[in-house]
Amino acid sequence: MLRTTATAAVCLTTALIALFSSAAHARPTRAGCSANSPADFAARELARTAETTAETIATDYEGSYARVSLRKLHAYEPLVVVSKREALHTRSRAYLLVGKGTATSYVIDVVAVSDGNGYLIDRTSDGYIFRTARVCGRKIAEW
Fold first, then answer.
1. Cβ-Cβ contacts under 8 Å for 73 (sequence gap 6 or more)
2. Mean local confidence (pLDDT), 23-44
3. pLDDT tens digit string along 46-85?
4. Number of independent structural domains in the chain
5. Which DSSP category does 64 fall into?
């Protein structure tokens, strides 16, 4: 009897830990909204790919991000989808909405096709990089 009670207590404790830890990490902003869909993972991956591509463009142009654009990002990396139409045609889960730069900074904004969640990477002229997510129309913490 004691052994069964101890096993039940361990199972209950494990279940409670799992419940509270998943609730702490989930970021829904309203019923049914989440940043954990496959499209959101694809959008974050595309944003990072575009970020790396922007850095490559700057390397080729003496450190200037002025040539970063949707067209240039796609030319350097064909896997960077730059329109919703292209995303639907190629069955991609995300597309690049904004990709532009100045001499010392750039902005990349990617949208998940299925839910419209967005992932923004902003490199400031000071060299700081900020990553912001928009889930269900609201900005949430950095990703």
1. 50, 53, 54, 57, 80, 82, 96, 99
2. 65
3. 999 999 999 999 999 999 999 999 999 999 999 999 999 9
4. 1
5. -
- Is residue 36 very low, low, confident or very high in pLDDT (cuts 50, 70, 90)? confident
pLDDT score for 37: 83
**CA distance linking residue 134 with residue 115, whole number of Å:** 11
The C-alpha torsion from 79 through 83 and 85 to 88, rounded to 10°, is: 40
Q: What are phi and psi of 12, to 5 degrees?
A: -65, -45
> Cα dist. 95→2, 62, 81, 90, 143 in Å?
58, 28, 5, 11, 18
Look-up: residue for tokens 């940043």?
A: 35
* 42: containing domain: 36-140
**Would you say residue 116 lies in a domain?**
yes
10 inside domain: no
pTM: 0.73
Q: What is the DSSP string of 72-96?
A: HHHHH-TTS--SHHHHHHHT-SEEE
pLDDT of residue 20 exceeding 80, the answer is: no
Distance CA 26, CA 33 (A): 10
